[in-house]
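Dear colleagues,

As part of the handover before I leave the project, I'm documenting each prediction I ran so the next person doesn't have to rerun anything. This entry is a single chain, and its sequence is reproduced below.
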Amino acid sequence: MTRVIDLLRKDKGEHHVSFEVLPPLKGNGTEALFATLDKLIGFDPLYINITTHHSEYIFRELGGGQYERLRVRRRPGTVAIASAISSRYHVPVIPHIICSGVTAEDIEYELIDLQFLGIDNVLLLRGDKARDDRSFIPVPGGHSHTSELIKQVNRFNEGFFLDGTAIRHPGPKFHFGVAAYPEKHEEAPNLDLDMRYLKLKQDLGAEYAVTQLFYDNKKYFAFVEKARAMGITIPIIPGIKPFTKISQLTMVPKTFHCDFPVELASEALKCKTDDDARQLGIEWTTEQCRELFKEGVRDIHFYTMSAADVMHEVCKRLL
């Protein structure tokens, strides 16, 4: 398989995009997912990211005022979706592997399955905390931090299972990227410490980083400048999600912990309908990406969830 870092390094001077998609909810088919990719595949993405979600907790009543907390998974495995996308579109795929909701043994099985399928590019993430938890709590036998997950993958790459047993027939090594946060991770006490963790991930073998979504390019440029000063040399790919609904004016800052620039927020407040918001999102995202390209960025990663039509229009204007 082609390493993502090699794709990012070649074709200097050209502009490229990549897309991130979400597996369908359990019980739904792949029709909507493939319909989204059918609209976007013509823009020749460098790769397709497939996100994943931790298990969710539900409460089952036992009677007598007692409840049992159960862990359930609402979406099919990222491994299966990655394989389906790779087979259908013949484009590099990058499944997410997360700490949240899984044990280290679960992760080992994911690595084995991916290796069997010939998929050796992954994005390593801690993942979100469970909805009802105040802070991130790993499941018993799971990892607390991305750095621990990276060390497991590195050990697997060296040819050893979790229990120390040598892998009799080691396959191709995994190559991985990680996340970066231009406005800092929500749990980090400050940006400096957050960026030290990014430097640690690089030192452990991360080949590139993809940022959390942002709407203010100044914050991305400042982040990259600060990262370079700290010795972070890996590519830092800007992650962009277009504004598409009026409700996102309050939902996005709360969910993704990023600010809307004053200009965008002011225009969003003028929107009367979601169609108005969609048009604003197309215009803002297009100009945001043009500025990134103008300043030397060659690769932009798009979060496409619920925004395939908007993404199609933006890419049509850019590429």
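DSSP finds eleven helices and eleven strands in the chain. The longest strand covers residues 56-63.

All the best with the project,
I.
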